[in-house]
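Example 3.2
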Amino acid sequence: MTKEFSHIVWTTHGCWKPDDQRGDWTQLGDFYNRLLTEFAGVKFSRALPHVWNPQAPLRDHLRLGDKARAQLGADIQKLSVSDRVAGNMPVVAIAVEPTCVQLVLSCDAASLSQKVGRLKSRTATLLKFNPETGVGGKNTWGKGFWYASFVDQKIVECVAAFVNAP
């Protein structure tokens, strides 16, 4: 049986997702354009724009500070292993940035939405329980998420390297 992998991107409240032309996801778009010239078999939740028309995030957008980002990384790792809903979902790569989270993980397509939704919900709650982070609860995350899915191990390695790049 072939393992399915996904590159997940979700944004903080008020920031544009990769499939929204108002954002600036040029690096992600360039990466996938190069990847697709070498490999087939990548499916997208929604196509990436060919050109972005960058606009500032919404006025009340959320930026994650260093403490929140560190906690998020640790919480996601724990939840992806042991949570009753989001568990048993190995994370291959993770990047927690000020305005988004990127993950490469193994999860079957049928339960991907449920598991990622659970990760978003639980991490927002866990952030709220730690006042030092200054964020959490309602309006932590933007609606939905974007993903690319694939099964080829070489694609997994390329996407993980992209996500883990400084």
